[in-house]
Specification:
Radius of gyration: 13 Å
Structural class: mainly beta
Strand content: 35-45%
Number of helices: 0
Shape: globular
Order of helices and strands: EEEEE
Helix content: under 10%
Largest sheet: 3 strands, antiparallel
């Protein structure tokens, strides 16, 4: 499952949290989605995020503790 917030994301597979952090920049919640597909024995989790302000390039999905939003 994926839990989207404007400035953070939590992704869990079964009961294991695999991503939990603050995003590099805010997102549009209605523009965020996830899907789970199967490719043979593999299961693929895809996550799409819509930037609130598309002018900013994201250096990474998540920001470090000492970074602040522009």
């Amino acid at each position: 499952t994926c839990e989207f917030k404007m400035q953070s994301i939590v992704v869990s597979v079964r009961e294991d949290v695999v991503i939990d952090g603050r995003l590099s920049h805010p997102v549009v919640l209605d523009g965020c989605m996830w899907s789970l597909t199967t490719d043979g024995p593999q299961r693929i989790l895809s996550v799409a995020l819509e930037k609130k302000d598309p002018q900013y390039e994201w250096p990474a999905l998540l920001r470090s503790e000492d970074e602040t939003f522009r």
